[in-house]
Amino acid sequence: MLEELKTVEKERAILVGVSGVHADRWETEEHLNELEQLADTAGAQVVDTIVQDRKKLDSAYYIGRGKAEYLSHVAQELKAQVIIFDDDLTPAQTKNLSNLLDKKVIDRSALILDIFANRAQTREARTQVELAQLHYSLPRLTRAWTHLSRQVGGIGTRGPGETQLEVDRRLIRRRIQNLEQDLEKIEKQRKLRRRNRSDVYKAALVGYTNVGKSTLLNALTDAGVFVENRLFATLDATVREMQFSDGKSAVLIDTVGFIRKLPHHLVASFRSTLEETLAADLLLHQVDISHPDFEGQIKTVRSVLHDLELDDTPVLYVFNKIDVLENKNLIHAMREKYAPAVFISADRQMFLDDLKEKINNFIRAGEKVIRFTLDAADGESMAKIYTLAEVTERTYENDKVILWSRASVANAEKLKYFADLKGWSIETMAG
Fold this sequence. Notes:
Blueprint (H helix, E strand, L loop, with lengths): L1 H5 L4 E9 L5 H18 L1 E10 L11 H14 L3 E4 L5 H11 L2 E4 H12 L3 H15 L22 H37 L5 E6 L5 H9 L16 E6 L5 E6 L9 H6 L1 H4 L7 E7 L5 H14 L7 E6 L8 H9 L3 E3 L8 H14 L2 E8 L3 H10 L1 E8 L2 E8 L1 H14 L2 E6 L1
Parallel strand pairs: 1-2, 1-3, 3-4, 5-7, 5-8, 8-9, 9-10
Antiparallel strand pairs: 6-7, 11-13, 11-14, 12-13
Helix pairs in contact: 2-5, 5-6, 6-7, 14-15
């Protein structure tokens, strides 16, 4: 029985892309390479890739009827079971292609949703995936009722088919509403957890999918997060504490990776996971410098960060996988172009101390230097300062003690409040 499970054949897939409309030939082929990785992650075996050059997309068959008929012959010859298009198809295009090809037809969004559904582990991830799937399927609902298609819409068609479709639409909309309410409750719990971390410096790992973020999280925090060399290996936000050699600590947040053409409804559904980055003091933009189009991936990530309104959050570029980089001169060029930047290998744990030092520098730059003057006998107040700040120098003048310290902005505000209550002398400067 186990042997049977191991030898289950993968679905044979043909990938289809169009160049000349949204991207040139080179970009289209690069996108299809990525689509092949997505198909592999979903459990398909790619048996062929077809690129159609067009100046305008065909509204009925996307690639035109002639090319679609050619695709049908290729699919029959290669015994393909599924045809995967690199761009989103309209419901009409999907229906027309499915009828002509007599094969399962899906687009990039449907493929990503399938991967997400398979990888979702937590209640939050499963809720977000189902919500995205329902938003995707709602306009395509008529496909589930093709046997009634001639009865749907228009005069004289008020029959059981339309009634059933409306019932189904209503059920889906109600389910969407319930899922959105569930996500609101989950987000309230998230906000409560974030509030409990408000005094801690937070760094969020962001980047294209499969650049090694989970590997880096494990290397810096011993998090034990699942790592696999596939796209979207992890979906859920992971939060772990990172320790520095000087005794300081910070919270490291890992979130779902980004990708080109990430469907808007998917970004919207996963917003509560991505919103972990909104509370971050620093974004660690991780990049796979060994990837041939890593700068294109940087642009994609920047675009998503812009959509999340994170343009003003400080960014440290973390160029990963330098151990497999053939052109080492690239490091110097990227150091100049993307400063501040650090170059590491998370897998081989190379130059991680440099990364931690850079993060610590950001922490110190955001701290306040505070000078306290209080009664030397006021042990309670002194204990409060030592709890909320790092005391760097202590001197005495008569019956007074002078403490020089460093504190986060949040803790500096708390100490100012206590100083006003207790009558300490306090002087605050930038870090």
